[in-house]
Amino acid sequence: MRRVVITGLGIVAPGGCDLASAWSTVVSGKSAIRPIERFATDELPVRIAGEITEFDASELLGVKTARQSSRFVQMACQAADEALKDAAYNRETLADDCGCLIGVAIGGLGEIEDCSLVLHERGAGKVSPLTLPYAIPNMASGFVAIQYGMKGPNLCVATACASGTHAIGEAARMIRDGQCDMMLTGGAEAAICPLSIASFAKMRALSRNNDSPESASRPFDADRDGFVMGEGAGLLVLEEYEHALARDAKIYAELIGYGLTGDAYHLTSPSPEGDGLARAIRGALQTARLTPDQVDYINAHGTSTPTNDTLESQAIQSVFGDAAQDVSVSSTKGVTGHCLGAAGGIEAVYTVMAVQNDLVPPTANYQTPDPTCPLDYTAGEARKRTVNVALSNSSGFGGQNGCLAFSKLTNP
To answer: What is the annotated signal peptide range for this record (predicted)?
Structure first.
C-alpha cells in the first residue's frame, strides 16, 4: 500500500494567522474568544465568537482579487500559501497531477446575507454578479487551485462540521489509490454573521456567556452551556512517501488511518452513546492496524455542548475500554471555538504538531469535572508525553462522523 505523509502545514485560526503563532496560542491554553467586532450585535442574543480580527488577504492576493473572493476562500488561500511554502512547493514545482480537496460546511453565508439585503433594499439591478461565486463552498478548492495551477483532482467535501476531516481522509485515499502523489487538503470556514449567530442561538446550541467570552468555550466542563462560533482554515500537504523521499522533503508525520460513519439517527443530535463516532474511531484504528492501547492522544471534537461532550466521552470509552484512562484527550475548541467546516482541518494541524513535538495541548477552561465525562482531558496546561500515535475526531449535523489516525514516521 502506498504510504501517505504530511510534508506541509498551513493555518489561519483564532489565536494566530500562521503555524507558529496558532500553535503557541493553543499550547498556552489562552482563549481567543472575544466580543464580535465585524458587525453590530445589539439585537443578537449571542455577541461573542472566535473572530480573526487581524486577518487581511489583500497582501497575499492583492486588493482586486481579494474583493472577488469570499472570506472563507481568502482564509483557504492564506493557509494554502503557508502549507505549500512549508512543503517547499510553488507554482513552478507543482506537477499537473497535484490536487486540492478542501472541506467547507457552509461557504459564503455572510456574503449571501449581504447580497440578499442589496436585492431587497436596492433592487435586482444592484446585485453583484459575484453573488454565486461568493456563496458556493467548492470555491475554496477551485480558487486555491487557480492561484497555484493545481490541475489534479479538485473537490469539495461538505459534511457539516466533519468536512475538514473527511476532506483529509478522502485526499489520502486518492494518493493511496495512485490518482496523484500530492494533495493539498483540509478545511476552511468563515460563517460568523448575524444570520448564523441568530440561527444557532435559536437552536440553543451557542454559549450565551457574553460577559465572560474567554471562558465561554469550555469543552467537557460541567458548566459548559454551548459552543462558540469560530472561523479559519487549516490545510495539510499530503504526499506519497516515496515521492516525498525523492525530493528530500521534511516529513511531520504519517497519516495511517481513516474511519467514517453515519449515525442514521437525527438531524442535529449524535446517536445514543456516541455509537456512530465510536464506529468511526474503530474504522480508523482498523485501517491503521492499531489496537486502542497504542494511541497516546485524541484531539476530540469536544464542542462544549452538553450532549456532544458526553456522547463523545462514551464513544471513546466504548472503543478504548480500560485503556481509555491512559489516553490524553483534549479539545482545542476551548481556545478557538468551533470553526465548523474548518474544524477538522485546523485540529488535524494541531494533532500533527502534537505528534511532531510530543506535546499535548490543554483543554482550555476545563475546571469542573462532569461525571458523564470521566476521561483525562489535559486540564490546566500542555503536557509533555511521547505521542507516537494520535487521533483527531469530528462529527457533523446529519450524523456524519470521521476520525483520522496520525503517527510518527516508522520504518523510514
So the answer is: none
